[in-house]
Design a protein that fits this description.
The chain is mainly alpha-helical. It is built from 6 helices and 2 strands; from the N terminus they run ααββαααα. It folds into 2 domains: 30 residues; 160 residues, Lysozyme.
């Protein structure tokens, strides 16, 4: 057998092993069918706990505070409550990057799925879930609370400080502590104040 033959057989074996590995990982970490329900229809009450709590297997384990009304304000700011809203048009790709009531990008869903695995909560979301008002709310809740918990864990803080971080993380997780996300927070806060959520 020549070196070329050995190389070809080695490449073939490597490809087969990679396919087997992908198949096993999908079976182990993604036990739900694409588009299947990933959580109860009614969102449970928020828990005063961290992602490492006994509820870590729950889709809502990352929640910290009892009041999730900031999610309503984000929804109104993003789409006015329209689950069919489309935004952030990319003229080069001819697609709308942000869709649904919470105007989620695909990368936002990817971030949610990463957080779920890190928290040992195996419910995974699909890109189609962005169009579902309830599912997109759950995705937003988990992602925003993850970053707020991360920033404020073991630090004295008020509920409003936590909410501000969560809201700014929705705008841009990597810039949640920068000036660029401050105007977005002020808009959402104003909507919260309209219904006397924030005093």
């Amino acid at each position: 057998m020549t070196n070329k033959d050995r190389f070809c057989w080695g490449m073939l074996a490597g490809c087969i092993l990679a396919l087997v590995a992908v198949f096993v990982i999908e079976k182990v970490f993604s036990p739900f069918e694409p588009g299947a329900e990933v959580a109860p229809t009614e969102a449970p009450a928020l828990k005063k706990s961290s992602p490492s709590s006994e509820a870590a297997g729950d889709m809502y384990a990352a929640f910290t505070f009892d009041d999730d009304a900031y999610l309503d304000a984000i929804e109104m700011q993003e789409s006015g409550g329209d689950p069919n809203a489309m935004g952030d048009y990319d003229k080069w790709a001819n697609v709308y990057r942000a869709v649904g009531a919470y105007q989620l990008w695909k990368i936002y869903v990817d971030d949610f799925n990463r957080i779920q695995i890190a928290n040992r909560a195996w419910h995974q979301a699909t890109y189609e879930d962005r169009w579902d008002k309830d599912k997109s709310r759950r995705i937003t809740a988990v992602v925003t609370s993850h970053y707020a918990d991360y920033d404020w864990r073991d630090k004295p803080h008020t509920q409003l400080q936590w909410i501000e971080t969560a809201v700014r993380a929705h705008k841009n997780p990597t810039e949640r502590n920068m000036k660029s996300t401050k105007p977005y927070w002020l808009k959402v806060k104003a909507r919260m104040e309209e219904v006397r959520i924030v005093e």
